[in-house]
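Listing S7. Sequence submitted for prediction.
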Amino acid sequence: MNDVQWWCSASGVTWSWEWRPYPGVWLFVAAFAAAYWWIARRGDEPEGRRESGRVHGARIFSAVLGIIFLWLTLDWPVGAIGAGYLAGVHAIQFVMLAMVVPPLLLLGVRPAALGRLEARDGLSRFVSLITTPLLSMVIFAFVMVVTHVPRVVDPLMVSQAGSFALDMAWLLSGFIFWWPLMIPAPLRPRFVPPLRMLYLFFGTIAHVFIAMWLLLAPYPVYATYELAPPFPFPGLNPLVDQQVAGGVMLLVGSPLVLVAISIVFFRWLGTGEERPRPGAGVTATGAASTG
């Protein structure tokens, strides 16, 4: 077995389906899950605000699913293949870390946690600032663009710290982007459904241009994947792999956004103007739940 790595990174070693341990990934996911459960799940709801068993169960399911997806995305084999062998798998990691895991985990937050957040004035002001829709949209788009620039990606992917930094940039920017849609703290009465739909569209439009760039580039743009040891899959060369990456971003990422926009739209038609309520959540695709 190869020397143990703490985090998945480009190693230049010929790919083998022999299992490799990544203790750093396990420790991170375990610590993250424990912190998440302590912050977002503990505490009893006040009388009169307790959720139904169905809503409570849905929150638990969403939280557990988010943690599982986080682990599967970072650990072997997905993490290892995406870090140093296939750009297509790396694109799957982006979609999962930025557009799937954050909304699932935010949906799992219990209303009691929002009450504790609002009770801490300094922390509440900071969260309110960083999740202001315009700022969070800009942060998400900026991180998305910068982390797909070859001169940024290639130097980072060769080290475990650099690969970790990319993964965390996607995850944290995803939390910041999805927070205004998923969490009613602070209340934003002016962030009405039409603005939410525009927010979803313009906040994620950069990934469409990145996808088209990857699909139409006449040559591999990332040295990490161009020079990676061949992956044992028939007909898969670096250029085709890059086109697969563009296809993943376009055909997986875009439908997720369209589903989120559609849910916001149809809920708006069905219920009229949405008014955020403390303790209300949103579905994993960005629409408010009736909790």
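Caption to Listing S7: primary sequence and predicted structure tokens for the chain studied. The mean pLDDT is 88. The CA atoms of residues 90 and 234 lie 19 Å apart.
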